[in-house]
Amino acid sequence: MAEKSLNQAAIYHDLNASVMVFFVALPLCLGLALASNAPLLSGLLAGIVGGLVVAPLSGSPLSVSGPAAGLVVIVSDALVTLGSYEVFVLAVAVAGAMQIFLSVARAGFLASFFPASVIRGILVAIGLILILKQLSYLVGFNSPQEGMASFATAFEQGSVEAVLSLSDYFEVGSLVIGLLALTTLLLFDKYKTPNRNFPIALIVVTVGTLLAKLLGQIDPDWSIAESHFVNIPVIQWADLTSSLTLPDLKHLGSFEVYQTAAVIAAVASIETLMCIDAVDKLDPLKRSSNFNRELTAQGIGNLVSGMVGGLPLTAVIGRSSANVAAGAKTRAASFFHGVLLLFSVLIITPIMNEIPLSVLAAILIVVGLRLTKPAIYFEMWSRGLNRFLPFIATVFFVVYLDLLTGMLIGIVTAITLTQGKKIFQRN
User: Fold this and answer.
1) What Cα–Cα distance (Å) separates residue 339 from each residue in 45, 68, 303, 335, 387?
2) Domain ranges of the chain
3) DSSP label of 310
4) Reported pTM
5) For residue 316, what is the enclosing H or E element?
6) Which residues in 39-73 are b (16+ Cβ under 10 Å) and which e?
7) Residues 263, 403: Cα–Cα separation, whole Å
8) pLDDT in tens, 181-230
9) Measured between alpha carbons, how far is 271 from 249 in angstroms, rounded to an integer?
């Protein structure tokens, strides 16, 4: 009898937590797809798979899986390299198969071999890239390339006329809403309410959506063009499968597909293992996750996500920590959040299509700022050159080249400094 009451209490807590995680996940799934230059539906599909597929198989009782900021650079670069989204999702599915192989080989321990300074550098670099990529959406540039070029010109000229001429390239309504959303999120971060579960991102999205309608009625010049709103195809149950982007199996023999898949599998696995290790430390019941089982779950999740046209996914610390804070007891909370995401796609898509992109950009810029806080640079500097140099090398080369090259340069730098220190100590 007592066990039944305990199970009922756990289900109550899990249902309550799932609603909170859904509120956090919905804007992030959309925003991360936007940042990746991928179809917005793909982010929601990854979140749905993270809940419905990964959660029941997971080796972690409290982690939540879905699209992650750590994969944004990989996705955007891969879309250019592979040439089409159909080929890219094939790479995602292959990456899932690779993760399953890693779990069978019991390779969960490999995450500990990656230098912490390099991992930190990757996350900081991704934060910088997120900020830079979202600026054009924040101000509502009609043509991001043309708008950013005009901004650079105005900055060089430094004249009032040049600055005022920028209004020809952006929409005032998007700018107002974006800056208001950004200011609200930054103030919330600085002066957090006692209720840490407050869904500030969802509140900002709701207010921004209502404000977008209001501004157009106040002044037609402030109305926002259709291209500056979320655009997700409205899906009915009957044509659900026809709305999905299926992988292009004709490219199964392509070297670029396997190269991209290997990068996705490596980074997604490392980020997942780091996340569930952190979540174990937050777990009030002090349970230990099964790392190899988690790799299996993530592999199956990415295999399924790729097959239905979703983004690659990982266990994510933001949604997982929100899950813990909301009082989740079991992996059922993550599963239920996936159910809510599925119903949002099937029922409230027309409402989501009223969300201005500038609001999502503000959310992502704040995510980027959290990843690349100035305090992180000072912390790494205080740990000595052996930690700082691999860290800063990783940041620089990930931002200016690509994630894989930056990661490899960071690892080589870390190994070189470590070996050099050992040689110096011997002599």
Assistant:
1) 11, 19, 19, 7, 43
2) 9-372, 376-427
3) P
4) 0.80
5) strand 314-316
6) bbbbbbbbbbbbbbbbbeebbbbbbbbbbbbbbbb
7) 9
8) 999 989 887 776 555 556 677 888 889 999 998 987 887 778 888 888 88
9) 28
